[in-house]
Amino acid sequence: MSRTRRKSPAPLPQRQGIDAARLRLPLTGGPWRTVRDHLVDRLAPPPEVIDAMLTAGEFVTADGRPLAPDAPYAPGLTLWFHRELRPEPPVPFPLRIVHRDAHVVVVDKPHFLATTPRGGHVTETALARLRRELDLPALGAAHRLDRLTAGLVLFTVRPEERGAYQGLFRDKRVYKEYEALAPDDPSLDLPRTVRSRIVKERGVLTAQEVPGEPNAISRVERLGPVPTDGRHGALARYRLLPLTGRTHQLRVHMNALGVPILGDPLYPVVREPVPPGDFGEPLRLLARVLAFTDPVTGVAHRFTSDRALAP
Question: Do 73 and 189 lie in a common domain?
Answer without folding.
Answer: no
